[in-house]
Amino acid sequence: GKPGVARQKVQRARSFQKLVKWRTGSEARISCLKRDYGWRRTRIDGTAGAQTWCAWGVLAHNATKISGLINAENAPEPTKPTKSAPPARRGADPPTRQRAAPAA
């Protein structure tokens, strides 16, 4: 049902909304790790094996993120398009191809 007045006041607080966003981000990170870094199931037996498996997944994910940040930092500035040619119209006909003359 609808939360009471006291609960609504708590949920509208900035700190509560910040925690909700943090939790959403954490769940997204876990989903990414499960999908892309082998967190669906561990292939090493026992609790220690599961911890090792998860740690390697986190390490691989962090390495990917760091390398992406380094590449973005070193990327050249994008160039602005020149105004020499007008942009193509939407729905414009594609260029036609000329047929070769038949061989005699």
Describe the overall structure.
With 104 residues, this protein is mainly α. The chain has a domain of 70 residues. The model has no long low-confidence stretch (mean pLDDT 86).
Task: List key phrases describing it.
mainly alpha; extended; 104 residues
Topology:
Blueprint: H1 5-11, H2 14-36, H3 46-74
Quick gist of this model?
It contains 3 helices and no strands.
CA(first)-CA(last) distance: 85 Å
Cα shape: extended
Provide the low-confidence segments as ranges: none
> What share of the residues lie within helices?
55-70%
Order of helices and strands: HHH
Please tally the β strands and state the result.
Answer: 0
Mean pLDDT: 86
Helix count, per DSSP? 3
Structural class: mainly alpha
Note the beta-strand portion: under 5%
Query: Quick one: biggest sheet?
Result: none
Radius of gyration: 27 Å
